[in-house]
Every structure is written in C-alpha cells, then in structure tokens.
Write a structure and sequence with these properties.
Structural class: alpha+beta
CATH topology: Arc Repressor Mutant, subunit A
Oligomer: single chain
CATH architecture: Orthogonal Bundle
Order of helices and strands: HHHHEHHHEEH
Distance between the termini: 48 Å
Strand content: 5-15%
C-alpha cells in the first residue's frame, strides 16, 4: 500500500508502520495524488460509493466493478496484485480507499464495501462538466 502511495514507512514494528501510514493517507497531498491517478473505472467505482453514502453491499459492488481476489500473504507477496489490479475493486482495495465489513441490516448481517470514515470525510465525488448540446 505504501508503495502505491509513494510513502516511505519508518522501519520498526508493523503496528507502528501501519499507524504512520494511516496518518499520512488522509493528508491532502497524498490523497489527491492517489485519487487523480486512479484508472477511470476505479474512479467511477469510488464515485458510486460516495453517491451511496460511503457504503454498498459487497456482492453488488463486486458484480458491478469486479471481484477482490482472495489471496493469502504468500501469494499476495509473490503476485503483488497492487501493481496490476484485476478489477476496479482491487484498485481501490490495494490503495486502502475501500474496506469490507459486515453491517447489521433489517435482513441480518450483510457484507458491505465501504469507504473508511477518515477518508470519506475528505473525498468528494468526481464531477464532469456537462457537455454542451449539439447544434
């Protein structure tokens, strides 16, 4: 994740590195650069989540934007999927722009894709200028 964001992490225990990374991710320069470098479909997926209030059912999200492949640490270290994500979902996941968790719903617990709260507050949907009508 730090590699994608261009952040040099301090050496030391993993929990210290994770804490340092979390603090940096929500800072404007890194966040803006990360968002501006997203592939078009990943930006569309992020905008969709923003329009849904920051979360949507994971099954619907994966159906629309592609799966998040299941990988253990060994396979992940060998394949480095963050370098060539197979879907928009993976592009957002490996940039730590989305997470997944179960939330209570009227039908019971359901898995959702969501934007973490600290990032959600800093993100705005991408808007394009309306095209001028022809003629």
């Amino acid at each position: 994740m730090a590699e994608l964001w261009g952040i040099d992490l301090p050496s030391g225990p993993a929990n210290q590195a994770a804490s340092a990374l979390a603090g940096m991710l929500s800072q404007s320069p890194w966040l803006e650069e990360c968002i501006s470098s997203l592939p078009a479909q990943a930006r569309e997926a992020l905008d969709h989540l923003l329009q849904q209030g920051g979360r949507t059912p994971m099954a619907d999200f994966e159906r629309r934007y592609g799966p998040l492949r299941a990988m253990g640490p060994g396979k992940r270290d060998r394949q480095k999927p963050w370098r060539n994500p197979a879907s928009a979902t993976e592009a957002l996941w490996y940039r730590a722009l989305i997470d997944r968790a179960f939330f209570d719903t009227p039908k019971g617990p359901q898995e959702f894709a969501y934007i973490p709260e600290d990032l959600h507050a800093a993100l705005q949907p991408h808007t394009t200028s309306p095209k001028a009508p022809l003629g």
